[in-house]
């Protein structure tokens, strides 16, 4: 008996989806509700669970193909244990006659000797509009034993870093894409001999890397990304201390090594002013990561495209701090999360966006698209650069719901675990420079959004209240906005409404 796997509900007005990734292949066992595929629409990413336990018998729709609602994706043979060779997809059957290289043939022989099936390690889902990635690091080498789901490599796209897990346990038989190589969204990265527990013992000596003698007599191959960086910086292997396995030089080793003096390669584009040789020897040149290049490009695009303007105000944080102090212990006890300032600011912004909807809108050609919801972007600093995870439907969440979601996204951002879906669809952004001590700044828009709120350091200052000079905890607020669709009146009104809600939090409860 077989069970059909069909496209799940895609949501209102969504008429088609693209098969982004299959996490199982024909012949593999699946459990009920186990995620076996991922679909992408123009709005969201949709997971496809297995409706029944059994063996995936056929994949009807291949990765990259577009399907409609309720379309048949695959079939599952309940309780079956068919071999993968009997249920291969049509595309695999059509490619079985392609001639293989000598290295591939040797990998086949190794698999046969170890009695395991060869399993391809493919590029995981990169997210909407991402078509390529760079292999940043391999954490395993040919012959290493790996466990199922163990991270074996890391890819870098222009938006996020993506971890590559081992699809099965076994031994790395072949690394197809070297460090530093650029691969497509559906590329094969490596081959694992499933079930093997030790490296093949009959590898011919001819397979030893040809470049080994160049590494100061070492018989190991340096990381390709390290060799490329050494060439860029005018270094030789004997000038770099390798910390990898058996003295292998890794990219990080080259970054730590002193740069070559004046004979280093010349700058690629805008020429620099002449640098004295003794200063050049103390400089370090590091190639920008794809994420940093994207951040730089998007921020500059925002300045070039939007008519960006910033308006400022200040808020007395006394009421929020008193309320937080009064209820924080009880709040944490009940909800299991700390009551922070971000939930107050998120709620205040959602409240103000209702009155000034153009700040929650975007320009699409000659149209203005007004959003009837708030997907709040929370700018977060990470070791690799600024990212903006999104709290979806923040306007419908409670204080506890907002704090939990911000905490979850913040942890994943710091750990480099954010997915593309976590950072897509934001309609407005909050950036808190105050955590770094910033007293005042002008935040840059996050296109295509038309507004971003900048929070800053809370500092006690003398202010006049009812004719008396008093000391209050004050914070400067900054709203940067796109003047093409947000007028000055709307921007000022928005910031005043945020100020009023924070200085009198009861207004949030009364919807005033």
List keywords for this structure.
OB fold (Dihydrolipoamide Acetyltransferase, E2P); alpha+beta; 11 helices; globular; 4 domains; single chain; Dihydrolipoamide Transferase; 512 residues
Characterize this entry briefly.
α8 crosses α9 and α8 crosses α10. The protein is an alpha+beta fold and 512 residues long. The protein is built from eleven helices and 27 strands.
How does this structure look, described?
It is globular and about 85 Å long. It is 24% helix and 27% strand. Mean pLDDT is 79; it is low at 81-103, 201-217 and 262-268. Strands 17, 20, 23, 24, 25, 26 and 27 form a seven-stranded mixed sheet that branches. It has a four-stranded antiparallel sheet with strand order 1-8-6-3, with no helix packed on it. A four-stranded antiparallel sheet has the order 5-4-2-7, with no helix packed on it. It folds into four domains: 1-98, OB fold (Dihydrolipoamide Acetyltransferase, E2P) (Beta Barrel); 103-200, OB fold (Dihydrolipoamide Acetyltransferase, E2P); 219-267 and 274-287, E3-binding domain (Dihydrolipoamide Transferase); 292-510, 2-Layer Sandwich (Chloramphenicol Acetyltransferase). Helix 8 crosses helix 9 (399-414) and helix 8 crosses helix 10 (488-503). It is built from eleven helices and 27 strands. With 512 residues, the protein is of the alpha+beta class. The relative contact order is 0.08. Pathway: Amino-acid degradation; L-lysine degradation via saccharopine pathway; glutaryl-CoA from L-lysine: step 6/6. It catalyses: N(6)-[(R)-dihydrolipoyl]-L-lysyl-[protein] + succinyl-CoA = N(6)-[(R)-S(8)-succinyldihydrolipoyl]-L-lysyl-[protein] + CoA.
């Amino acid at each position: 008996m077989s069970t059909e796997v069909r496209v799940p509900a895609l949501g209102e007005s969504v008429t088609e989806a693209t098969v982004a990734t299959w996490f199982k292949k024909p012949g593999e066992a699946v459990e009920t509700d186990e995620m076996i595929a991922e679909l992408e629409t123009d709005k969201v990413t949709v997971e496809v669970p297995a409706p029944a336990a059994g063996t995936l018998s056929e994949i009807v729709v291949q990765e990259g193909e577009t399907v409609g609602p309720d379309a048949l994706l695959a079939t599952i043979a309940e309780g079956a244990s068919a071999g993968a060779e009997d249920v291969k997809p049509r595309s695999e059957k059509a490619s079985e006659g392609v001639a293989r290289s000598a290295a591939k043939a040797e990998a086949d022989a190794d698999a046969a000797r170890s009695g395991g099936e060869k399993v391809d390690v493919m590029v995981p889902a990169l997210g909407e509009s991402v078509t390529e990635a760079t292999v940043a690091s391999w954490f395993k080498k040919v012959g290493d034993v790996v466990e199922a789901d163990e991270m074996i490599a890391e890819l870098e796209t222009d938006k996020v870093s993506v971890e590559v897990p081992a699809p099965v346990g076994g031994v790395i038989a072949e690394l197809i894409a070297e460090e530093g190589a650029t691969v497509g969204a559906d590329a094969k990265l490596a081959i694992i001999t499933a079930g093997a527990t030790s490296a093949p013992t009959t590898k011919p000596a001819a397979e030893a890397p040809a470049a080994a003698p160049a590494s100061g007599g070492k018989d190991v191959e340096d990381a390709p990304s390290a060799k490329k960086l050494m060439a860029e910086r005018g270094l030789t292997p004997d000038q770099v201390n390798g910390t990898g396995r058996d003295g292998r030089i890794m990219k990080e080793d080259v970054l730590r090594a002193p740069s070559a003096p004046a004979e280093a390669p010349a700058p690629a584009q805008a020429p620099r002013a002449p640098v004295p040789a003794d200063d050049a020897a103390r400089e370090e040149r590091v190639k920008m990561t794809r994420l940093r290049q994207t951040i730089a490009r998007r921020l500059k695009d925002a300045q070039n495209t939007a008519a960006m303007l910033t308006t400022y105000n200040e808020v007395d944080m006394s009421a929020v701090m008193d309320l937080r102090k009064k209820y924080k212990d009880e709040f944490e006890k009940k909800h299991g999360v700390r009551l922070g300032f971000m939930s107050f600011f998120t709620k205040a912004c959602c409240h103000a966006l209702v009155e000034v909807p153009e700040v929650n809108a975007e320009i699409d050609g000659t149209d203005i698209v007004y959003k009837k919801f708030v997907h709040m972007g929370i700018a977060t600093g990470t070791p690799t650069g600024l990212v903006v995870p999104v709290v979806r439907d923040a306007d419908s969440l409670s204080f506890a719901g907002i704090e939990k979601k911000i905490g979850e996204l913040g942890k994943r951002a710091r750990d480099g675990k954010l997915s593309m879906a976590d950072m897509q669809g934001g309609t407005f952004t909050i950036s808190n420079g105050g955590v770094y001590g910033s007293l005042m700044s002008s935040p840059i828009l996050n296109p295509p959004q038309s507004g971003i709120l900048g929070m800053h350091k809370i500092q006690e200052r003398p202010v006049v209240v009812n004719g008396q000079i008093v000391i209050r905890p004050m914070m400067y607020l900054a709203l940067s906005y796109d003047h093409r669709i947000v007028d000055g009146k709307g921007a000022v009104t928005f910031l005043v409404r945020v100020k009023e809600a924070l200085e009198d939090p009861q207004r949030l409860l009364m919807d005033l």
